[in-house]
Amino acid sequence: xxxxxxxxxxxxxxxxxxxxxxxxxxxxxxxxxxxxxxxxxxxxxxxxxxxxxxxxxxxxxxxxxxxxxxxxxxxxxxxxxxxxxxxxxxxxxxxxxxxxxxxxxxxxxxxxxxxxxxxxxxxxxxxxxxxxxxxxxxxxxxxxxxxxxxxxxxxxxxxxxxxxxxxxxxxxxxxxxxxxxxxxxxxxxxxxxxxxxxxxxxxxxxxxxxxxxxxxxxxxxxxxxxxxxxxxxxxxxxxxxxxxxxxxxxxxxxxxxxxxxxxxxxxxxxxxxxxxxxxxxxxxxxxxxxxxxxxxxxxxxxxxxxxxxxxxxxxxxx
Length: 318
Ligand SMILES: [Zn+2]
Prior knowledge:
Bound molecules: zinc ion
Order of helices and strands: HEEEEHEHEHEEEEEHEEHHH
Distance between the termini: 103 Å
CATH topology of the domain at 22-242: Metallo-beta-lactamase, Chain A
Oligomer: single chain
Radius of gyration: 23 Å
Largest sheet: 7 strands, mixed
Strand content: 15-25%
Structural class: alpha/beta
Number of helices: 8
Number of strands: 13
């Protein structure tokens, strides 16, 4: 009798418990930013077990002929959930996927599009091939089980730069570089939306593990000349005008100047990392940690150049 009463009480208590949230749900909510154009905006944090790597922006365009996907996210699960989110918006099939560059948060969702042609710049495909395995392992280390079952699926097609029309949308495929060795930007002439990939960051400090600052600055000039109506940065909010391009340029120029000056003054890496941030960057998410990372990625080359410029006159005297 007591046992049955107890069981009834337990069942009664359990009926009030909140329904268990589905595990590893990224809660992707497509946001419409222009005709036929939807984006999924990630957080401006580092990758953690809390966000599962959803720190990135992805997008899709629903054309008459089917859906064009731009970047597939940080994990197999994200790719699958993105595809489910697309299916809630349209019953058209996904016909094409582009990877803007080879960084893990942008292409590790490719597994969910195994039946769709995936295209990227040649340097991006090479990067996916060379670094993909290590990236997937690292994603698992940082994001935990969100990333379980994630393996790199390499883009199978080279992007041909130029115009490509899909279902009434004329896309300009623009081959650039500087954030990595291959950075694809896509301008949709129909809507004026620029999908800038990680060439543009807004209100989130830029990352530089594979960066060439000078090439990146040139690419920003090329993007500015497009005069896009709206820009989707790789990280940060969708915006009209050129705020993202300008802020990214401002950050890169400051970084370049700071590293050059520090090398000329003979500072060591630890000293550079402790330098104060300019007031305008102090409240930018991840400014301090990305600056420190950039010092580890880039400072060695600045030190070598500073040594060269000291050594060269000596050598020339001989
Ligand atoms: Zn990136």
